[in-house]
Amino acid sequence: MILTVTLNTALDITYRVPSLRPGGSHRVSEVTERPGGKGVNVARVLAALGHEVTVTGFTGGTTGRILRDRLTEVPGLVDALVPISGTTRRTVAVVDERSGGTTQLNEPGPTVSHAEWSAFQEVYEDLLASVTAVALCGSLPPGVPVGAYAGLVRTARAAGVPVLLDTSGAALRRGVAGRPDVIKPNADELAELTGFHEPLRATQDARRRGARAVVASLGAEGLLAVTPEGRWRAAPPARLRGNPTGAGDSAVAGLLSALTDHRPWPDRLTRAVALSTATVVSPTAGEFDHDTYEELLAKVTVTREANAA
Amino acid sequence: MILTVTLNTALDITYRVPSLRPGGSHRVSEVTERPGGKGVNVARVLAALGHEVTVTGFTGGTTGRILRDRLTEVPGLVDALVPISGTTRRTVAVVDERSGGTTQLNEPGPTVSHAEWSAFQEVYEDLLASVTAVALCGSLPPGVPVGAYAGLVRTARAAGVPVLLDTSGAALRRGVAGRPDVIKPNADELAELTGFHEPLRATQDARRRGARAVVASLGAEGLLAVTPEGRWRAAPPARLRGNPTGAGDSAVAGLLSALTDHRPWPDRLTRAVALSTATVVSPTAGEFDHDTYEELLAKVTVTREANAA
């Protein structure tokens, strides 16, 4: 069983409009709605790969109820979300059918009380007893202390569970100090964390800050992994066009999937690149195409680099 | 008791963002949510004026549940909405704090089944037995026949209940044929109905098409009313700046309020102009300011015109 944590879950709504004009009135031609928040997205991909996965974090109010209803429809996924008195936030993605661009509107999310945060920490510790890996994903909602992830990382390490942290900004900077097994920043997040824009230098600096392994996602160039076992670059066979929404979450799922299957770093990176590329080329934002994923597994190139630095 | 009909109810969500950039990602700084659809808005204004008012129409799903929960909070308002299996639509208004402009995103709404439409017609006929006036407001949801309003107008007339129709496009064109007591088109709706852009000519033509009285709302210029009892223009004391959202619904509420109180046309028009102006200048979109309304009642000018044409 894999555990994913989403402290700031969301109900993700997508609107398609012929063309978005600021100040105009638009009839939405298509509405889709699904459970969201990074850890929920990671769990959905893991479940689709055949893993058993538990989701925890916070949920509340009417949107929380819709989110939980929809999670019951995902086979292999266990809902261990902790109820709160606030209402789960919505995100609205407005897809402009003419330009293909997406305009994102994110509600701030409910404030989590001290008692709710304590209740979550107990649930989390109990869940760790029966999982093979845990991913801590996304932003922190108001009310949760900025150092929250460092504490959750330490609890996982104390329980002997490998822990991956995928967040940004202050939550990442503070969380890294807890010494997570893996972090998976993108180039911007890595630069914000370390102050370095050159990926290799930034990745090495991130390890010095506490991360055991750093898997940097460099967009179309693939992944750069700097780990205690060595340094690798992994890339898709060709630059593929598509929608990058959810590609990072799919990469996290790939890393966790292979980690849980006791596979070495090159296999973990192969799954991560194949899944994120299969997500980019999928016509549905955030979903991956199974056949494309299977095909890509044989085509991803993983190159070991000398650990000169 | 006044009855308002909203066949296409909505949960109206308002997002405030610092500045809306197509293709960008925005953190929403403020979220507000309230029951909507034109007839619901009219009912809210009538209830605030102290009238007893019943709302009917369709509602369903989670958004429908939220809408009904919120209606219970309005004193003087009776919920007689008919449940459907579909889910009530949302509308999202994105207010750009820098420009003050509003970008509107309207979900299409659920499809109403034949059985649900029949159930509504029975409820509607029963409700007519105990009301002094009825307003039929807004667009028709998918599944409801385009001639729906003509039928509802005839049922009201057969029950001896004065009926106001406030809609647009084909629903208005077909509805007018049922001979409503009043229609309240704006300049665009009137031009679309009649093909004439000159308000007086268009208003007179709309009467020939079946409306007993036409109250045309001409924006900042106020109202032009052509009725069997005479022709009037009603205008606010000055051009007032603000948000026109809901001004038309407030005008409908003003007309119904004075009609129910057995007041003549000049008083009906005064209330309509005072309410819609108090809505425009209110800081909250769609709400009216009570003190401003009371003040404006004495300042609206109503001018009788010779019925030369």
From TrEMBL, chains A, B:
An example Gene Ontology cellular component term from the record? cytosol
The EC class name is transferase
Q: Which CDD domains match?
A: FruK_PfkB_like
Entry's Pfam families?
Answer: PfkB
Q: What is its EC number?
A: 2.7.1.144
What NCBIfam families does UniProt report for this protein, alphabetically? Answer: 1-PFK (TIGR03168)
The molecule here is called Tagatose 6-phosphate kinase
